[in-house]
Amino acid sequence: MTDYVQRAGDILAKINDLAAISEDATGITRTFGTDAFLAGRQRVQDWMEQAGLPTRVDAIGNVRGRFVSSNEGAKTFVIASHIDTVVNAGKFDGPMGVMMGLDLVTRLIQSGRTLPFHIELIAFSDEEGVRFHTTYLGSKVVAGSFDNALLAKKDALGITLAEVLQTIGTDPTQLLSDALAPDEWLGYFEIHIEQGPVLYERHVPVAVVTAIAGQKRVEIAFAGMAGHAGTVPMDMRQDALCAAAEFVLAVEQFALVHKNNLVATVGKLTVVNAASNVIPGEVSCSLDVRSNDTDLLETAYLALHELATSIGANRLINVNWNLIQETAPVLCDTALTDLLAKSIRESGYEVIPLVSGAGHDGVPISPVSPIAMLFVRCFKGISHNPLENVELADIAATLRVADTFLDSLPEQYY
Predict the structure, then answer these.
(1) How far is Cα 121 from Cα 116, in angstroms, rounded to an integer?
(2) What is residue 34's DSSP assignment?
(3) Which of 301, 327, 353 is a domain's end point?
(4) Which residues pair with 207 in a beta bridge?
(5) Across the strands, what pairs with 84?
(6) How many angstroms separate the most distant Cα atoms in the chain?
(7) 166 and 33 belong to one structural domain
(8) 195 and 154, same structural domain?
(9) What is the pLDDT of residues 129-169, one digit of tens each?
(10) In this structure, are 206 and 262 located in the same domain?
(11) Which of 296, 327, 358 is the last residue of a domain?
(12) pTM for the whole thing?
């Protein structure tokens, strides 16, 4: 009989081991292409090889291990998540899914079973998009949707993505050849922390994801006139920060009105040449809008653009609006989702369907493959934070569900 607690303990030990590899000594930060990223990637590759998986690192830096079927013409079922992090991250966002996938494939290898399909375990190199402000670099390559124009994109130090790939020892000219062709895909499965409070509040270890919200990311620059804080009358100012502040509050108010199916966030604000005795002349901010309703997402985007323009006009501030990224809402595959829900019931847990407000690598994968996701309860729903935590018992429960799900694939899905 499977000892799920022991397996969960092994997974947790690997998660803690990987978390110790960081760009800074006080937190967990592994952004794409850094020394810490390379060290973490090597650790994951070592674990895959120790489990008996033939592995390779592809041109974008993904670690890919393959459990090969003997069936001629077999398709590929991908189990994946990411190993990059945000700045000052938690331990579980991304790496937990990779370590659980490794455990699932290890069990299959040790059982001596053969499958009618290949399994490819992938540790995606960049999902968070921290360094180059564009998400899903790793999964876009595997899906065949990587845009080579991204190679010219620069980080904060002016280093291009192409230069980073050369530095870490990969060949940018091979990016397109690293894709799985659409006819090779059987399905895609990812295990991920919920990053929300529903499971924690309901005391349930897992949930089935039915959809992933679409999102639009915008960079906005407010340009007014800098001036002396002591000499320019209040009614004659072109204060860019006041315009940005009004916009931030307007975004919050709009999202509160539509709170049942929309969230909007201004998470970054930069005052150019900031000083306590200078009227801010230039301010930039980010905008992140998300919904699983395509029409509402577009309506919100247009409405907030109009709000920014109106605020600028009223304050004599020039507003530059730049859409930098957008993804449409994604529905998870009905057959795989139903099978995952059945596996949850058979494992003795309540089936809770959830829409993910966070983006995941399944978004770029969805045009070429059916996708399924399993959420795992995390402490108070906290994520992108060092307080991020998952209990050993919940990892064990998730393994039980995932084993059942994978064991049913050959009979019911292939």
Answers:
(1) 16
(2) S
(3) 327
(4) 375
(5) none
(6) 80
(7) yes
(8) yes
(9) 999 988 899 999 999 999 999 999 999 999 999 999 999 99
(10) no
(11) 327
(12) 0.88
